[in-house]
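Example record for the data management plan.
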Amino acid sequence: MRILIIEDNPDIAGNVGDYLELLGHVVDYASDGVMGLGLAVEHTFDVIILDINLPRLDGFEVCRQLREEHQLDVPILMLTARDSLADKVTGFQLGAWDYLVKPFELKELAVRLEALGLRKAPERARVLQIGDLRLNLDSWQAQREGKPLDLHRASLRILEMLMRASPNAVSRQELEFLLWGDEPPESDPLRSHMYELRRELDKPFAYPILKTMRGIGFALRLEDDEHGD
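Corresponding structural encoding:
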């Protein structure tokens, strides 16, 4: 894969780049957000590793511009020292596909990058696809096996976050923050949204892809992933 590392810490960028090159990947570097944005727009990359705390232009803004202004759907893994719930949700909302908190193991980073690289890029930047599941972010229409799913907007936003994170899990707290911010309702409306999502996403089909990860949250995983648990 051709990988772009946008990271202002030369030690981290060097260590990550050396390791990835040993694995056979081609690596390019940028030490600030403006340089990274320019490289990402001018060249084709399979995956981008994007730090948040960057000089000149922070990682959130780089991600936003790549998605909204340049309509690029290259997989983005946010690599950062920030581990707050708000930062994670912001990253996913802006279009990040994965999130890894420093410090991290290089082997885990490599595995996550391989998973991102294997996910098929859709024909348009505003369409997400995992297996036979598709979500059009312009029309907010979801389909599985070509059949439309009847989902309310809140459930569609949950689906978007789960698809961007797949096959990794998203916690209940992250989903609640996505919908209600710092003031979730006292009742448990998330339960009804997840019920609606499971009813439309899994019930009519041969195998379920919405997994409940006990003590963790929820994840979208294809049939083969389930066999590996």
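Summary line stored alongside the record: The longest helix spans residues 10-22.
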